Amino acid sequence: MSRFPKISETFVLYEILEIIRMGYSVEVFPLIREREGIVHPEAQPIVDQAHYSKPFGRKILAAHAYWLRRRPRIYLQTLAGVIAANIGSPKFLARALIVLLQAAWFAREMERLGVTHVHAHFATHPALAAYVVKRLAGISYSFTVHADDIYTQRPMLAEKIRQARQVVSISDYNRRFLERLYGDLARAKVTVVHCGVDVGVFAPRPAPAPRAEFHIACVARMEEKKGHTYLLDACAHLRDRGVPVRCHLIGDGELRPEVEAQIARLNLGEVVELHGRQPRGRVKELLAAADVMVLPSITTAEGRQEGIPVALMEAMATELPVVSTRTSGIPELIEHGRSGLLVPERDAEALTRALLLLATNRDLGPRLGAAGRARVLAEFDLRENARMLSRILTTDLAAPLDTVKLERAF
Q1: Whether 186 and 218 share a structural domain
Q2: Strands 272-276, 25-27: pairing kind
Q3: Low-confidence residues of the chain, pLDDT below 50?
Q4: pLDDT value of position 408
């Protein structure tokens, strides 16, 4: 993956942990060592054993010298191909060259370890690293596509798909998107495996004690596509209509200054509480104390949008009712009026009406919450989806599925 351990990418961490629990041997190759202030405790053992590298250094140069001696034609062709495919964007070219430097060492290290298959999360630089590993070391690879890694810029994506043994999509929306772009190539390679949540950890919560205030939780990075601005507008509308409301924002990001400015502008200081980044245990506590989870996601002008947010799955697994928008793959998770409520994106008034419905009809929330958990159990259970992924990753291996020892590199 690009960064590890990244607290907002729980879907990567817990997928790794579930694959390990199933008995597979996992080697982790991050492109960048993330150094956030908060780390999920479960990530630490993986961090301690991960194969971190810097793009420059003796071992990197030694790996490149090794491949230049061993496979000079393929090495030079790969270098030229990566440069040619990314030359149109200085930013992508610079990053691609750094990935190329690291990937040569990844390939050498994976060969030494006896890795039999590589899986990458995200179609951008992680998939490029897997592609280079295959070119140099001949190790097969697959990759998972999520959201922004395919919706905006797609350098070398057709070639990455062509060379991959399999492409995993976290949503049917993504699968159809790739088929529109790449036709039969995508139809032959792309399989849908949803991200999932641990339904044992995110178990049904006790019903909150009766209270006057209506508590809203939003678990999301503070970035444009998450739509915080519309939630804050809705909170102001609810307050102005006499609804005693409290809003808990869990997460951080580059737009925090804008969020804080809007809170001040709307005089929401007594309504909105900023909790910042939180580990999974604390997120679970905040969800348990809420009356609804809201994620008013949007599609940005640049085309950035959601995949299927894991934060919504976590809330639904606890039987907390959810409100979100009809964008990208979200309707694959939430059936409007049955397992949650969906509103048009960028519509603060529609969001206000949905929240007002839940705030004034206290029987609706439990009904939506119970159906939401049933939906997660049916298609978004981490263990079941990890089993599906393991079958995809071992399909072409010679040994029977239940005896294969898979070395999987992320």
Answers
A1: no
A2: unpaired
A3: 397-410
A4: 35
Contact 168, 175 (CB under 8 A): no
What is the overall mean pLDDT for the chain? Answer: 92
User: Does residue 112 share a domain with residue 8?
Assistant: yes
Contacts by 79-84 with C-beta closer than 8 Å and gap 24+? 81/159, 82/128, 82/132, 82/156
The answer to whether position 115 is within a domain reads yes
- Taking the alpha carbons at both ends of the chain, their separation in whole angstroms is 5
Q: What is the pLDDT of residue 410?
A: 36
Domain CATH for 74: 3.40.50.2000
Give the count of domains, the chain: 2
- Cα dist from 254 to 184, 234, 269, 326, whole Å: 39, 22, 20, 25
pLDDT digits (tens, 9 = 90+) for 338-348: 999 999 999 99
Asked if 179 and 262 sit in the same domain, the reply is: no
Neighbours of 337 (CB within 10 A): 11
Domain that holds residue 398: 3-196+381-409
